[in-house]
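forwarding from the other thread:

> can someone predict this with nicotinamide-adenine-dinucleotide?

sure thing
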Amino acid sequence: MQKILVTGGAGFIGSNFVRHVYRERPDWLVEVYDSLTYAGNKANLKGLEDRVTLTVADICDESAIDAAVARNDAVVHFAAESHNDNSLFNPWPFVNTNLVGTYHVLEAVRHHQKRLHHISTDEVYGDLKLDDPSKFTPETPYNPSSPYSSTKAGSDLLVRAWVRSFNVKATISNCSNNYGPYQHVEKFIPRQITEILEGRKPKLYGSGANVRDWIHTEDHSSGVLTILEKGKIGETYLIGANGEMQNKEVVELILQIMGKDKNDYDQVNDRPGHDLRYAIDSSKIIDDLGWQPKYTDFRKGLSNTIDWYKDNQDWWKPLKASTEEKYKELNR
Ligand code: NAD
Ligand code: TDX
């Protein structure tokens, strides 16, 4: 493999993956394919220009995605509308990009017989009860709750059907909640860090008892690269790093690391249909492909992430006011 197409490579996880590949596979060339929505940012790819190019185009543009797939050896498909709260406000971009867009990616890889790795989420499985000790496995039935997670579930099913019906050489991964640098300030952890940096309080939805299974984006990237190189065609792999924490605990930790009183947060309106708990059993990728997460010290990872937002205010400041305007409309 020498040339890979990374859809959504100017977003949070996509750009961290591109940086990972740039470092770990110095003989590869990467073409990022991204329409630069509100969530995409050219600056995320700064310094990589000698081996990374950017094509600004939409995955729903049939001829543009077809031509881009044709000139590469493999496709890693991150492009998506990714924020649950936005999907509750206006589901249409989620249906269009996540379902119609994935259809166009699949048709292009089918016509040109290219390898595809499709990026998905643990949210396709719905949620677990707070007191349920079980975790999601590749056999857990799909049961998505939100417009976001239902369109991601639909995109996974399209990929599976294209593998079975047309012999498309695809794999799928479903990962848990990522954190790290370059994450949009609409998401939980960067929102709280930047609220504190702007002199306001963190905003916890409801009781804050909801549990998310946090993984550093570097570990997600190494998992995706492992599957791309060693994964078995047609298989689904779950990626997680045993990082379960209640939202309330995460807010308290952020406040503590930033030198504030750990109780100095606001409780705001809950998200409608708010999933209670996600938890990933990643034994398949560990046992079958030999992958291991490395960034499992959450306090250290969070502390480095806080430092990144402190040091990169030029990156997030332009996004902050419009994001908080949206939340104000939702009373959150
Ligand atoms: P993000 O919103 O930060 O980035 C999405 C990127 O896709 C942006 O650069 C955007 O410009 C681009 N994009 C959106 N619509 C497009 C279109 N129609 N055509 C071309 N480009 C388009 O999202 P993220 O958090 O980096 O998530 C990336 C992927 O990982 C998504 O598929 C998401 O479902 C999945 N995922 C995310 C998490 C998480 O915790 N954030 C966890 C598991 C899986
Ligand atoms: O201000 C907030 N306060 C709060 O309590 C925000 C923005 C969120 N929350 C809660 C809601 C969730 O329980 O924090 C948790 C995490 O919220 P998000 O960052 O919006 O993530 P989540 O809804 O869990 O989805 C994320 O993980 C799975 C990503 O956004 C998805 O793209 C991914 O598929």
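The longest helix spans residues 92-112. thats all i got for now
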